[in-house]
């Protein structure tokens, strides 16, 4: 009986240790965005969390990439970008970068402040110069910095509405009320007046 108790106790310790190791490496889950040391440009990577846990259980603490947007062409690289992730894994998550960018931003169409980005929730979107909206998580992570620079934020409701208008124009009576921006976005009357005043006079 005593032997059985000790065996159960030992197994319980092993399970607790494995769970603890998994929790230690969960901070590396998800898509990460790094600056490639070779190109100096953004690259999307993933950490091999399962491999890292297995290595830790064998007494070796190490992390390696499991995927990279520059692979398979550069699959033999030295993975020098890992030091960026190890220093602050949360800051390099694509989700964290997007959530931070949307903070305080207002929808280009309705002007309402976009709510905080949350998992399993309605994703905010972006609208490009071609007036096409798409959810931010549909963009390859390595292209996010350029997309945030070139596009305007759009709330989920307006993204759905604009997508329907674009895909089914024959079913929509479109009244572009106060939408005179370069990508069809909402422009308050005050801004319109300022634009008119700043515009150069037309030649007679």
Helicity range of the residues?
25-40%
Helix/strand structural class: alpha+beta
- In what range is the share of β-strand residues? 5-15%
Let me know the number of strands: 6
Sheet with the most strands: spatial strand order: 1-2-3
Separation of termini?
105 Å
Mean pLDDT across all residues, rounded?
79
* Count of structural domains: 2
Shape by Cα distribution: elongated
Q: Which H/E pattern describes the elements?
A: HEEHEHHEEHEHH
What's the main sheet like? 3 strands, antiparallel
Unreliable residue stretches: none
Spatial extent as radius of gyration: 25 Å
Number of helices: 7
Protein described:
This protein is α+β, with helices and mostly antiparallel strands and 204 residues long. The chain contains seven helices and six strands; from the N terminus they run αββαβααββαβαα. It has two domains: 27-92, no CATH class; 99-196, no CATH class. The protein has helices spanning 2-25, 49-57, 82-87, 94-102, 144-150, 156-167, 189-198; strands at residues 32-35, 42-47, 65-68, 125-127, 133-135, 152-154. Strands 1-2-3 form a three-stranded antiparallel β-sheet. A three-stranded antiparallel β-sheet has the order 5-4-6. The mean pLDDT is 79.
Concise structural overview:
By secondary structure, the protein is of the alpha+beta class. The protein has seven helices and six strands; from the N terminus they run H-E-E-H-E-H-H-E-E-H-E-H-H. The chain has two domains: 27-92, no CATH class; 99-196, no CATH class.
Strand and helix layout:
Elements: H1 2-25, E1 32-35, E2 42-47, H2 49-57, E3 65-68, H3 82-87, H4 94-102, E4 125-127, E5 133-135, H5 144-150, E6 152-154, H6 156-167, H7 189-198
Antiparallel strand pairs: 1-2, 2-3, 4-5, 4-6
Helix pairs in contact: 1-2
